[in-house]
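Record type: monomer structure entry
Structure origin: computed from sequence
Chain ID: A
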Amino acid sequence: MEDDYILSHTENKKPTSKGKRLGIKDRVVIEQLLKANTPVTIIAKAVGFSRVTIYNEIKRGTNGKQGYSASYAQNSIGG
């Protein structure tokens, strides 16, 4: 399963130090895990950011009824 692959390659990531930012690869992982109904706590561990950062990212990248989109989130920050 694709989700198992993502989680197995990001299992032991710890929250990053101050100043790190989510990249498009992180956002794609977030999008895929959200589509699989993965809890935010697990998503945070998978990408190495705090739960607060993930919640903020979901808020930033949610486009109405379409839900979270990695590309929408990336474009909303000017990337």
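Annotation 1: The first helix runs from residue 2 to 8.
Annotation 2: The chain has a mean pLDDT of 86.
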